[in-house]
Design goal:
- There is one protein chain.
- The protein is α+β, with helices and mostly antiparallel strands.
- The protein has two domains: 66 residues; 177 residues, Ribonuclease Rh, Chain A (Alpha-Beta Complex), CATH 3.90.730.
- Strands 1, 2, 3, 4 and 5 form a five-stranded antiparallel beta sheet that branches.
- Strand 4 and strand 5 form a beta hairpin.
- It starts with a helix and ends in a 5-residue tail after the last strand.
């Protein structure tokens, strides 16, 4: 009887041991993966919250840099600081499109300022930017002017800074926010109702011209322009150091620039 009881006890212990083994194994299978899955879920959630925000911010900065290269520059123009000043009463008789040979302009800026370029020239001349002919401005002119002070200037006074997104559209032809702002305040406001109209006309006239991609002497430049632009064939053009002047009447037909 004792032998039977001992055997039965042994069997019970074995069964309990086996049951305990499988019970622990099942718990391990059911419980141990759970922290890993949770950790994975948390990691994915964390990444999904972080990466898009970082990407959005980086993209916004890159877009801002492209659209607004002088994003921190103060590009507004103050009329009282202009050495020529205002002439709001002079009539507008014709227009002069002033084009600038950018390499020559930038050489002068570097000779004068070295590596400390003024903010007005940094976009055009900095970062090894290679530009050719650009638009300096479109200037309403007085046919009876005897000096630069007799032409229309600042006709609407001191104007507020233009939106950067507007200026950004025209940086390809007039490379500088301060340049665009200044030309609008000094000249464009004397003949156009809005800066948008003024810049669009500059772009239209500039796009209608074929321009050389090398530096030419004054006479060579005139010959080249008349040879490649039939509308200029019989027109008297103007020029100064690194600049070319083409004149238009009030119907936007090419006319002779005045020699004085």
């Amino acid at each position: 009887m004792k032998k039977f009881t001992s055997t039965l006890s042994l069997i019970v212990l074995v069964v309990l041991a086996i049951w305990q083994y499988f019970t622990d194994s099942t718990k391990t299978k059911n419980q141990s993966p759970s922290p890993v899955i949770e950790q994975t879920k948390q990691t994915k959630v964390s990444e999904s919250k972080f990466e898009p925000q970082f990407e959005t911010k980086r993209t916004d900065i890159e877009k801002s840099a492209v659209k607004n290269p002088n994003v921190f520059a103060n590009y507004d123009v103050i009329m009282r600081d202009d050495p020529i000043g205002q002439n709001a009463k002079a009539p507008v008789d014709y227009y002069m499109l002033a084009l600038s040979w950018s390499p020559g302009f930038c050489d002068i800026q570097r000779e004068k300022y070295g590596n400390q370029l003024p903010s007005s020239a940094k976009y055009q001349c900095g970062n090894n930017r290679a530009l050719g002919w650009v638009v300096h401005g479109l200037w309403p002119q007085n046919a009876n002017a005897l000096s630069v002070t007799d032409h229309p200037r600042f006709c609407k006074g001191d104007l507020p800074a233009l939106p950067k997104d507007l200026l950004a559209r025209y940086l390809a032809i007039s490379p500088g926010e301060q340049l665009l702002q200044g030309e609008w305040e000094k000249h464009g406001s004397c003949a156009f109702d809005s800066a948008q109209q003024y810049f669009a006309k500059e772009q239209e006239l500039f796009s209608s011209l074929k321009l050389p991609n090398q530096n030419l002497s004054r006479n060579e430049l005139f010959r080249w322009m008349k040879q490649h632009n039939p509308q200029l064939k019989n027109a008297y053009l103007g020029a100064s150091r690194n600049e070319l002047f083409i004149c238009y009447d009030k119907k936007w037909q090419v006319m002779n620039c005045q020699s004085k």
